[in-house]
Design goal:
- This protein is α/β, with parallel strands linked by helices.
- Among the domains are: 89 residues, Arginyl tRNA synthetase N-terminal domain (Gyrase A, domain 2), CATH 3.30.1360; 97 residues, no CATH class; 89 residues, no CATH class; 120 residues, Orthogonal Bundle (Isoleucyl-tRNA Synthetase, Domain 1).
- Helices cover 50% and strands 12% of the residues.
- It has 20 helices and 15 strands.
- A 5-stranded parallel sheet has the order 7-6-5-11-12. The protein has a 4-stranded antiparallel sheet with strand order 1-2-4-3. The protein has a 3-stranded antiparallel sheet with strand order 8-9-10.
């Protein structure tokens, strides 16, 4: 609907420009929806935008624009309000048209081709495989999967990717933690389990599986085990243990390392698939080392003159590219940093030919953005093609009690536990109820309520109510509308027009949700549409005896159900026909 009115407005402005009445046409024509329908269905401030350039009063310019508007079967009349706003009042035919459109396009209603020809990569979640996914990871998963769906609905070619941090210190700490539980199970751990190891019960399970696989074959490394409790610095203690295990186990260290990685990564895959979150690729950080990609990226920075050596470490001169300080690429012991791997990974992303890359990181990584963009510029790449969305933490409450989220201590609620308690639908919907950069308090009790207070239940109930009408009609022996041939001109009541007007908004919201990277716009829209439908359902008799009117009203209801189903599908939520 906005597109149609915008086209008419554009035609009027082109005519005035051709006549010399206005010097030019604004690049964008904004059409807003007045809060009250008495002020029109759509309103434009274009006359106010042109006033300074034209040198005339906005109301006079608005009069010229209205006079130049082409005749339209959809525009009933216009009014000039305030200092020069143009308010458009539409014919009922404009609202009947959207019902036909929904019934024709069905699952594709709301879709567009705005992103055609653009190949986007989305990387999200990418949690270290050091433990099960917890409720904090769930927000990034729901947000990323929903945004991918929305972008695809806008015609973009989307490639979803999970970056597996399977190299580096955290994975070594996990391996050491598994080994200590492996010894503990045999009664061979000489001291209490260290505080700065991974202490969740899942580590015991991995260690038990490792013992089933290798028996006592790795136990010899307990000889000469460093006395961790005697060390005052916990980080030095755990690093000393890791070094000892690597030296003592030799090639068998990879068996220990893989025991934790493989089991946890398999659990993460299953958890996300059950949450309807899927990826085109799981990308291994270790593969960057194995293929020499990290060596190549660092060498490219060195060759371009952007590195220097200080105290045996290799530094990237990030301050030359607007970062606040220089960054270490290779430590004095010859080991690459996480940053070096990230430089190589992002260079490889663009080498694959993506038009645009979107990374979704936890909000605590905000300081990491400038250094990655600095490295891309240093490599001669366009850092504007990298977009980083920071996802704030999700805080889980049981009543008024905040739940602990310490992965290392093993005190957290897993994503799987959350899904089992509230269901996938509520979890997916509640996770996207706020902008990604806003903190989210996840109310468990609200998510489980079967009432209008629970937004996902309220929306799903609206969809189910439509199909309840169809079942009631069948029970009464009443005929149902066919796919075509329904006379919608009968629909003239204000609530029917308002409901159809709400349908027109869906394609608009799909566009803005993709542009702004905000799935919550879809969630908010669905709640408003459901509210409009519930109001209509409670105030209007739909299954009337008069066949033409019944068919028209049912067709409107079915269009609402289709829009709800389409919107919920974008958010990864079911649209049940019965509740």
């Amino acid at each position: 609907m906005k597109a149609f009115v915008s086209q008419a407005l554009q035609g009027a402005l082109q005519q005035l420009h051709a006549q010399g009445s206005i010097p030019g046409i604004p690049a964008t024509l904004e059409l807003d929806r007045p809060k009250q329908v008495e002020h029109g269905h759509l309103a434009s401030n274009v006359a106010l935008l042109l006033a300074k350039a034209v040198g005339r009063k906005p109301r006079d310019i608005a009069n010229d624009i209205v006079a130049a508007l082409p005749a339209s079967e959809w525009i009933a009349r216009t009014e000039i309000a305030g200092p020069g706003f143009i308010n458009f009042f539409l014919q009922p035919a404009a609202f009947h048209a959207v019902i036909h459109r929904v019934r024709t396009e069905k699952e594709r209603f709301g879709a567009n081709r705005n992103g055609a020809g653009q190949r986007l990569q989305l990387e999200f979640v990418s949690a270290n495989p050091t433990g099960p996914l917890h409720v904090g990871h769930g927000r990034g998963a729901a947000y990323g999967a929903s945004l991918a769906n929305i972008l695809r609905f806008n015609g973009f070619d989307i490639f979803c990717e999970y970056y597996v941090n399977d190299a580096g210190r955290q994975m070594d700490i996990l391996a050491a933690s598994v080994y200590l539980r492996y010894l503990e199970a045999a009664g061979a751990l000489p001291w209490a389990f260290p505080e700065n190891s991974y202490r969740g019960d899942y580590v015991r399970e991995i260690a038990a599986h490792l013992r089933e696989q290798v028996g006592d074959r790795l136990q010899h490394a307990a000889a000469g085990l460093p006395n961790l409790p005697e060390m005052s610095d916990g980080d030095i203690a755990i690093d000393t243990l890791i070094a000892h295990l690597k030296q003592s186990l030799g090639e068998n260290y990879r068996t220990l390392h893989s025991a934790g990685l493989d089991e946890i990564l398999a659990d993460i895959r299953d958890d996300l698939e059950d949450f309807d979150v899927r990826y085109e690729r799981w990308y291994s950080e270790r593969s960057l080392m194995d293929t020499g990609a990290v060596d190549a990226a660092v060498a490219a920075l060195e060759k371009a003159g952007h590195c220097y050596t200080l105290e045996g470490a290799l530094w990237f001169r990030a301050t030359a590219f607007d970062d606040d300080k220089d960054r270490v690429l290779r430590r004095d012991n010859g080991a690459y940093t996480y940053f070096a791997s990230d430089v190589a990974y992002h260079a490889e992303k663009f080498a694959r030919g993506f038009t645009h890359v979107i990374d979704m990181w936890g909000a605590d990584h905000h300081g990491y953005v400038p250094r990655v963009k600095a490295a891309l510029r240093a490599l001669g790449l366009d850092d504007q093609q990298l977009e980083v969305v920071l996802v704030q933490f999700a805080i889980l409450y049981r009543g008024t009690e905040k739940v602990s989220m310490s992965t290392r201590a093993g005190e957290f609620v897993t994503l799987r536990e959350l899904r089992e308690e509230v269901g996938n639908d509520a979890a997916r919907f509640f996770y996207v109820l706020r902008r990604a950069d806003q903190h989210l308090d996840f109310d468990l009790e609200l998510a489980k309520k079967h009432s209008e207070e629970n937004p996902v239940f309220y929306i799903q109930y609206a969809h189910a109510r439509v199909y309840s009408l169809l079942r009631q009609a069948a029970e009464k022996g009443l005929s149902l509308p066919s796919a075509d041939g329904v006379d919608l001109t009968i629909l003239q009541e204000s609530r029917e027009i308002a409901l159809a007007d709400a349908l027109w908004r869906f394609p608009e919201v799909v566009v803005t949700a993709a542009r702004d990277r905000e799935p919550h716009q879809i969630a908010f829209y669905l709640r408003e549409l459901a509210a409009a439908f519930h109001t209509y359902y409670n105030s209007t008799r739909i299954l009337v005896e008069e066949t033409p009117l019944r068919h028209a009203r049912l067709t409107l209801c079915l269009a609402v159900a289709q829009a709800i189903a389409n919107g919920l599908r974008l958010l990864g939520v079911r649209a049940p026909e019965q509740m």
